[in-house]
Specification:
By secondary structure, the chain is α/β, with parallel strands linked by helices. It has helices at residues 9-18, 26-33, 37-49, 114-128, 168-176, 185-196, 260-263, 265-271, 283-291, 295-319, 329-349, 352-355, 369-382, 385-392; strands at 53-60, 66-72, 78-84, 88-94, 100-107, 136-143, 147-148, 153-154, 180-184, 205-210, 214-220, 223-224, 323-327, 359-362. The chain folds into three domains: 9-72, Winged helix-like DNA-binding domain superfamily/Winged helix DNA-binding domain (Arc Repressor Mutant, subunit A, Orthogonal Bundle), CATH 1.10.10.10; 77-189 and 369-389, Nucleotidyltransferase, domain 5 (2-Layer Sandwich), CATH 3.30.420; 202-364, ATPase, nucleotide binding domain (Nucleotidyltransferase, domain 5), CATH 3.30.420.40. It is built from 14 helices and 14 strands. The structure holds zinc ion (ZN). It comes from Pseudonocardia lutea. This is ROK family transcriptional regulator.
Length: 407
């Protein structure tokens, strides 16, 4: 394929180091790398010549002479990201620093299976990339189920019919001929929340997505916490004692008394009854009721917030986050109603040391939080020196298994 770039190993290492740092001068690059002035100049020239680095301003240098600042050229390539929920997806085309250049929301049913959903994704991605000449570097997908991180395969998703074990990177990698990163949706949102926070972002953050189901993404010590099998943060299927009389509700996963059987959008819809003509309500119907100010729906969502608070109190004791951020469609429509119960029960059930500086709030970034997190996690993997060599040679090889992300 045309446009292949071959970089020296040193230039790839420098490009990797420049991701995630503020712009640097030649002297600062020398200080960080220990390289001679000649080597620094040669590698900077190599990266500038390849269009991967750019001059981005001047600072006062030694002896009062202005020094040129260098940063990664965000326009050297494109990233495509698709943040998929149970009933809709946010798609975006991003630059190499994760800045969103174009976005689109689409309705879909994740239960229709991977062929249908990924087919739609491919179609919409092609539209987002129409008339774009710069090269595509990578694709990232967020999915509402546990993702086995080394392989990018979905594992035993409770609600995603047909997705178990499906090779998402294989399918999209064959279509787009670039590396593909797959992430649990709540993990992507947690990471996006940290990326979008004022510098420095919180190192310990719990993101709770409340949509059709309930999921959590955990950032601990500045990294996404995925767990041994990619199942960390499966808050929706933790057991809660909601303090109610009668038998506990049955969950979609087959167990009973799961948190989302009380607090997920599907459970709220179940309790609000059908639409009057026998058709069952969905989480999207609950969102519409909240937007219309329906008193019954608001009351039911406040009750969901209290059960979320019971579950989150356990998580706060285990993880001691500095922030709990709530997002997803139900939080967007009725966040304050959810927060009231969460605040009440977290404060009552966690130790004061864990809650004294704990902030609990709704995300301020709306639908962008998932796509931004996906783009940054993808870029972190693409800028690994070995992966860079493949990306720049337009190689179609996959990502390095278990490459560190988010640090
Ligand atoms: Zn369950």
């Amino acid at each position: 394929m045309d446009g292949a770039t071959v970089l020296s190993e040193g230039a790839r290492v420098l490009l990797h180091d420049l991701r995630g740092t503020p712009p640097l001068t030649r002297a600062q690059v020398g200080d960080r790398t220990g390289w001679s002035r000649g080597t620094v100049n040669a590698r900077l020239d190599e990266l500038i010549g390849a269009g991967l680095l750019r001059e981005c301003g001047l600072v006062e240098g030694a002896r009062g002479r202005p020094a040129v600042l260098f940063s990664i050229n965000p326009d050297a390539g494109d990233l495509l990201v698709g943040h998929i929920g149970a009933s809709g997806a946010q798609l975006a085309r991003c630059d190499l620093t994760g800045g969103i250049l174009a976005r689109e929301s689409v309705a879909l049913d994740v239960g229709a299976g991977p062929e249908v959903v990924l087919g739609l994704l491919e179609e919409r991605f092609a539209v987002l990339r129409a008339d774009v000449e710069r090269p595509l570097w990578g694709v990232a997908v967020g999915l509402p189920g546990p993702v086995h991180f080394p392989t990018g395969r979905v594992v035993s998703p409770p609600i995603m019919t047909g997705w178990d074990g499906f090779d998402v990177p294989g399918r999209l990698g064959a279509t787009f001929e670039v590396p593909v990163h797959v992430e649990n949706d709540a993990n992507a949102m947690a990471w996006g929340e940290r990326c979008l926070a004022p510098e420095p972002g919180p190192d310990d953050l719990l993101f709770v997505k409340v949509g059709t189901g309930v999921g959590a993404g955990i950032v601990a010590n500045g990294r996404i916490l995925r767990g041994a099998q990619g199942a960390a943060g499966d808050l929706g299927h933790t057991f809660v004692d909601a303090g109610e009389d009668g038998p506990p509700p049955l969950c979609r996963c087959g167990k009973s008394a799961c948190l989302e059987a009380y607090a997920g959008g599907w459970a709220i819809a179940r309790d609000l009854g059908d639409l009057g003509d026998g058709r069952p309500r969905t989480a999207l119907d609950v969102v519409a009721l909240l937007r219309a100010g329906d008193a019954r729906a608001i009351q039911r969502v406040r009750a969901a917030g209290r059960v979320l608070g019971v579950g989150l109190a356990q998580a706060v004791s285990l993880l001691n986050p500095s922030e709990i951020v709530v997002g997803g469609p139900l939080a967007a429509a009725g966040g304050e109603h959810l927060l009231a119960g969460i605040r009440q029960h977290v404060a009552a059930r966690s130790l004061p040391l864990a809650t004294q500086d704990l902030r609990i709030r709704v995300t301020r970034h709306g639908d962008d939080v998932g796509p931004v997190g996906l783009a940054d996690a993808l870029a972190a993997r693409l800028f690994e020196p070995d992966t860079l060599a493949r990306v720049l040679s337009r190689g179609t090889g996959g990502l390095v298994p278990a490459a560190p992300v988010g640090g």
